[in-house]
Amino acid sequence: MCPSLAPAGVLRCQNFLLLQAPELGRSHGGKFTSANPDWASHNLGIFICLNCSGIHRNIPQVSKVKSVRLDDWDDAQVEFMASNGNNVAKAKYESKMPPFYYKPTFLDCQ
């Protein structure tokens, strides 16, 4: 079940994602804060902007991208997104990254 919203199936999941995307997507790519993270990598648990979604779509073996607004989400995917988010993913994936590695920003996508 989608967390914390009244029952309504897919619409309830979408509403939860729309409410949570700005909060869970606040830290984006380490240096960038997206005002409208309308896309997500549902297997990584991160919210991303439109430009970054295009890059993530080009690496389907690593990242599975869906629109927060346009695509259907099942309960398991929404729960995974709710329990993760960009800060959790950053702590997981960048914890052992050497300081000299380049961290991409949204400007790299323009």
TrEMBL record:
Keyword terms: Metal-binding, Zinc, Zinc-finger
Organism from which the protein derives: Nothoprocta perdicaria (Chilean tinamou)
Keyword Cell cycle tagged: no
SMART domains reported in the protein's UniProt record: ArfGap
PROSITE patterns given in the database record: ARFGAP
Gene Ontology CC terms: cytoplasm; plasma membrane
Protein's UniProt name: Arf-GAP domain-containing protein
Arf-GAP domain ranges (all copies): 30-110
GO MF annotations, alphabetized: GTPase activator activity; phosphatidylinositol-3,4,5-trisphosphate binding; zinc ion binding
